[in-house]
Amino acid sequence: MAIKLLVMTTVNPDEPLSLENYLRVVGPLVEAAGGRLIDRFEVAKTIVGQGSAQFITLVEYPDEEAIHSVFQSDEYKALEETRNKAFSSYQVNILS
After folding, report:
1. CATH tag, 3-94
2. Distance CA 92, CA 50 (A)
3. Which of 2, 29, 33, 73 could in theory staple to 66 by disulfide, Cβ–Cβ 3.0 to 4.6 A?
4. What is the spatial distance between Cα 35 and Cα 22, in angstroms, rounded to a whole number?
5. DSSP three-state, residue 16
6. DSSP letter string, 63-86
7. Strand (E) positions, 12-80?
């Protein structure tokens, strides 16, 4: 059964090379796991609450095993420092 992820991010504008390096590695990992981008939105305005994400991205994976093959991989784990530089906020959620 397909599983959708909601990814909420805010890009760090001071680290464009970190973002580029992160995306260069993550894109092929997601593709190899059978993940696909459903849609991506830029948040125009927050009506209620604080600390809103800059971008909302929906990604679909074929199953939970595919998700784990990305996020538990050595390649992804090695990106932790790069990810922390590239994004000022980064949250990944499994939708039901």
Report:
1. 3.30.70.100
2. 18
3. 33
4. 16
5. helix
6. SHHHHHHHHTSHHHHTTHHHHHHH
7. 36-42, 55-61
User: What is the 8-class DSSP label of residue 14?
Assistant: T
Determine which helix (DSSP H) or strand (DSSP E) holds 88, and give its type and residue range. Answer: strand 87-94
Flag whether the pTM goes above 0.90: yes
Give backbone dihedrals phi and psi of 86, rounded to 5 degrees, phi first: -70, -30
Residue 94, H or E segment: strand 87-94
Longest dimension (CA), the chain: 39
H/E stretch holding 87: strand 87-94
CA angle 60–71–84, rounded 5-degree value: 110
Which of left, alpha, beta for 63 (phi over 0: left; psi -120 to 50: alpha)? beta
